[in-house]
Amino acid sequence: MKILGIESSCDETAAAIVEDGHRLLSNVVHSQIDIHAVYGGVVPEVAARSHIEVINPVIQKALSDAAVTWDDIDAIAVTYAPGLIGSLLVGTLAARTLALTKNKPLYPIHHVEAHVYANFIDEQAEHLTLTLPKSQPRFPLLALIVSGGHSQLVLFHDHGDYQLLGQTQDDAVGEAFDKVAKIIGLPYPGGPSIAQAALKGSPTEYSLPKAKMKGAYDFSFSGLKTAVLRAVQREVCVDTTFPSSELAGLLNDVQRANFAASFQRTAIETLIDKTEQAFRDHSPASVVIAGGVAANAELRTLLSKRLPIPVEYAPMALCTDNAAMIAALGYYQAQQLPSTPVEDILVIPSLSMPKTAWRPIKS
Ligand code: KG4
Ligand code: ZN
Question: What residue ranges define each of the domains in the chain, with the CATH number in brackets?
Fold first, then answer.
C-alpha cells in the first residue's frame, strides 16, 4: 500500500511516499528557514504564503522522485493538528482537493504522534541514501518526543494504543533551545546552532539547575531558560534591568560556546534522567526518540550510554519536520480505521496528542 503524506504544520512544506508503513520511496522537504531567519523566528503569515507557493510542486516532486503516478497511490495522509492555523489550512486543503479529484481515501494525522513513526522507516528506494535503522522498533515502545512545541514521554503498547506518561509543564525543550540561542546571540533555529557552538564549549563551565517535578516523568524548561539569562547577566556584570536583547553583544565567542554547552548538557541530562526512569519502571522492548531535538547528536550519544538496551535512531532528516512520518502513521491508521470524508477534515492548531488510543477496541 503506497501512501502520499503531506505536512505543512509549521515552516516546512513536505510531501513523501511511503510503502507499507516502512519503505521510503520519496521524501521532499522545502524548508523556509532562510525566509524566517531574518526575523529570528517563524512569522505565521509569511509561512502560510510560502506553503501556498510551493505545495503543488513539492507534491509533484514526491510523485516523480518515487517514479509513481496517481494510479499507484492508495491513500493520502495529511497533518491536521497541531500547528499554525494558516500553515495547516494549506496542507489540508491541498490534501482534501486531491483526495476528491483523484478519488483517494484520506487520513488526518496528528503531527506529534507522527514524529514517532519516523522510527518505523527501515527501508528506502535505491535513489535515497539515508542511514536508516536496521529494523523497526518493537512494542511495548517507549518514545521520548522532543520538538519545538512538545516534550513528552509516551508508552506505546501497539499502533494507536498508547499512554502519556509525562510531559512538559511549561516550555518545550526545542523552544528552550530556540530562546536560549536568542539570549546568547546564536542564529535561528536555536537547536542546531547551540549544538554547533557547544562543540567548542565546556558543559561544566556554568552550573545550571535541573527542575524538580511532582510527576516522575514530567519536565519543565522555563526555569532553565531563566537560569541561563541570569547567569549571562552575572557573567557580563549587568543587572536584571539591562535589556535582554542587548546581552548577546557583550558575550565573547568563548563564553557563548560555554553557555551553549552548559545549557545543552543540562537540558539533555534532564531528558535522559526521565527516560531512564521510565525505562526502569516500564521495561519497554524498544526506546525511540522523535521530533526536531532528536536530531541532537549529544542526546543520541548520552542516551545510548545510559540505557541497557541498544537504541537505533532515525536519520536526522526524518527527525525534523517531514512528510514521510505522516505517510508512515497513515499506513497504520489505514489498517484499522475507516478513512475520513474530506468535508470532515478540520484543522486544530492547539490539539495535544490525544491521551487515549485511536485504535478501535477489539471485542
Ligand atoms: O519537530 P520540529 O522540526 O518542529 C516541531 O514540530 O516543533 O522541531 C523543531 C525544534 C526546534 O526547536 C529546533 O531548534 C529543534 O527542534 N532542533 C534541535 C536540533 N535540530 C532541531 N534541537 C537540538 N539539537 C538539534 N540538533
Ligand atoms: Zn514537528
Answer: 2-131+317-356 (3.30.420.40), 141-311 (3.30.420.40)
